[in-house]
Amino acid sequence: MKDKFYLLMFVLCLNTLIQASPTVTVQFIKTDQFGYKPSAQKIAVISNPITGFNNGTPFNPGSTYQVRDWLTDVAVYTGSITAWNGGATQTQSGDKAWWFDFSSVNTTGSYYIFDVTNNVGSYRFEINNCVYNDVLTQAVRMFYFARCGSAKTTSNATVAWADAACHAGTQQDTDCRLYNNSNVSTSKNLSGGWHDAGDYNKYVNFTWSTLTDLLLAYEENPTVWMDNYNIPESGNGIPDILDEIKYELDWLLKMQQSNGSVLSVVGGGALSPPSTDVAFRKYGPANTSAALTCAAMFALAAMQYTAASQTAYATTLQTAAINAYNWAVANPNVTFNNTGLLAAGEQEIAAYDLAARKVCAAVYLYALTGTASYKSFVDANYTNIHLLQWTFAYPFEGPEQDALLYYTKTPGATASVKTAILNAYTGSMQSNNADNLPAYTNKTDAYRAWLANNNYTWNSNQTKSKQGNMFLAMNQYSLNSANATNYTNAASGFVHYFHGVNPLSKTYLSNMGSYGAENSVTQFYHGWFKDGSALWDEVGVSTYGPPPGYIPGGPNPGYALDACCPNGCGSPSNNALCLTNVTPPMGQPIQKSYKDFNNDWPVNSWTISEAGIYTNAAYVRLLSKFCTNVICTTTLTTGIQNNELTGGGLVQTIYPQPAENKMTVKFYNSENTVDLLLYDVSGKQLISKTESITNGLAEVDLTGIAPGVYFLKVSSKNKTEVRKVVKE
């Protein structure tokens, strides 16, 4: 009788809650898949694809839309939608679009957007003050996985991404040799630092934008950074972002020679996982650009570690910064062009960039030391920076603009120089550049995160974050108080773009299903998480997929197969690779020129999907402005839940979602067996099986199950959970 009672109560609960989600979830209704803070502007974008790969599934939205509570299905707000640009098709996306403003909904909870006429809804999203905190944590943890020479332990990386220390073998980073002379006399310990991107190379010059964004992210909002990101240093009383930055700075200090010069690059290797890579590693010689990069970053970092009461380390950085600057002044034209010699990619910089970095280094050294000679150099050369030459602020020169703005807040800065910099930046952001505030106020982009056509290039996702950070700088420096809310809202549009408000309804972070994103990146170009890997290739296909939090390069209409295609790639088997289906990203509107893929040469997916430290850094800085400065706790809701992380529960995630004929249940702990029961929305049981757990995973065969929404009851010896699942 007791068992019948509990079964009856479960069915009653199920029938009460089965309406607590849309019967059909569609990607045409686009929201931030993580959610919104209560006081934030909240605008869903509804789309009808007119051109592009998805125009075969049109969508005609109804006129009435609702915000509905995910658990009770109660409509908490009802309103109408507004056609973007009078119903025009946006060229960049190939879509017609409508906006649904539900900013007045500010009660904490779980919701979805509902189209009353079509009886369809959006993905689930949350409204609460902590909605982005876990997302920020994962985006920062990307740098932990990028560490070179540091073991990824099961306690910090879980079983899924544990790996021994990499590049610590013969003639590798602890015994690194000069690129053109492998004699033991050239051996140096250059261990540590971050792998730059999809390869395992470590470039000094490519830390320029990365460290600028991370260090300023800390300075601009220091209280938001916690000491609980589950990296080896967590719990040491220092914000984990500073611990992570220190891992890179310690490597840069090793790259500096006793005379102040800085070696340029360490490169070599490509095997998966990194610990198996035994390729010899080489370093490039010192050059002027590396010295100026380090002079600036050491000086900026010294101020942050001083603020964090790490004075001894700050003193070390200050000495290193001064020595690097002095060497660069004495050796202004030392270059190293490494193309084809050492590492993939060109790490040397152009003459303008070299001169700009010297100005930036002088800015930070003056702010750090107060030495008049640095100030004099800035005052004599700041007008050579493009912001002043062109009175044009734009996202490809973020670090230079950041440095000039930094000068304006430095005590003792020359008043006329300060005024000139602020006027140039404010004028460009406020009115005389259509890509900046006018793009927001004129509603230029249907998806509310405008970049001009020519700015969608390789790594457009970094450019997107940079543009958002430019808006926030206006408020950081209190430059246009009348438009402060507009600048915040404009920047938030770029956050929402990353989280699903884009033509693909794609959350541009990897493997975030456990954190609330129902359509996140499944694969990207990377030496570890490479095409064909049984463990790490693709979420839902390989055993684990890549870790959470990596951001791929993003839409790039310039994508093309390698120039050797279709028949010049060296062999018939190589030429056959040219036939890979790459539409999308080829032949698409700009914003649809993207695909989750990680194919190597000659398909060259890296121009679309390669993830880099600089891309994550720009996003981390942007997102941090929308996070709260308290540790958030989540109260778990009983009953039907979406497939998000439940913090120590039974089921970690279910993937893929939606599923076709098979889905995999991933568990937190090492359960031996579980009972799996699948119910339809009427409460009818369709599947009942006891499944043995292998490597923390169990599979559910959906063959013969019709497309639709179902509920999976998962029971172990001590726990029971019910999850909403979808078969497509």
Can you tell me about this structure?
- With 728 residues, the protein is α+β, with helices and mostly antiparallel strands.
- The chain contains 18 helices and 25 strands.
- The strands form 6 sheets. Strands 2, 4, 5, 9, 10 and 11 form a 6-stranded mixed sheet that branches. Strands 1, 3, 6, 7 and 8 form a 5-stranded antiparallel sheet that branches.
- Helix 8 (351-369) runs antiparallel to helix 9 (372-381).
- The protein is globular and about 80 Å long.
- Mean pLDDT is 91; it is low at 1-19 and 633-648.
Anisotropy-based shape: globular
Q: Indicate the mean pLDDT.
A: 91
Largest sheet: 6 strands, mixed
What's the N-to-C terminus distance?
38 Å
Q: How many β-strand stretches? A: 25
- In CATH, what is the class of one domain? Mainly Beta
CATH fold assignment of one domain: Immunoglobulin-like
